[in-house]
Amino acid sequence: MKFNIIGRKYTVRDNVREYVEKKLSKLDKFFKDEPTARVVLGTIKDNEYIEAQINSGGMIFRAEVEDAEILAAIDRLVDVIERQIRKNKTRLAKRLRENSLDDMQLISGGAFVDEEEKGEFEIVKTKRFEVKPMLPEEAILQMKLLGHDFFVFKNADTNEMNIVYTRKDGKYALIESVE
Description:
8 strands, alpha/beta, 4-stranded mixed sheet
């Protein structure tokens, strides 16, 4: 696994860097090719946090964990990502069979319990609405007026579909498509 470890308001010590690499390298068994991991370590108030994104074969696994101790946060983060892989193993194996996830390694790599696959992504409601061109600031206002956490709109500047959403920290983010 290739690592890019970054510290935000945090000095990444060698022992922490080695611990991150050691723990995340255990996830290599799930991938055929060499995945890349972007890891951000930081401090928020009195807690330390770790955020990791692993890219492999077009799939992205992401998790963030906060804890008083960074080593405990690292352990919990690896558990979260491994749970994501295990929970979605069937879908991922079908999609990535020829790309990055080795189906046989998944089966032999540990005891997997099949989640209920039918209806797991059941669509219970479909909404249709007219998409009007607006600026991201207007979209945020519309999102707040509706009481939603996200809002889909056509950006008046770029004429492309965008999404604004409320982040966990209460700030707003904009998602733009890249072609």
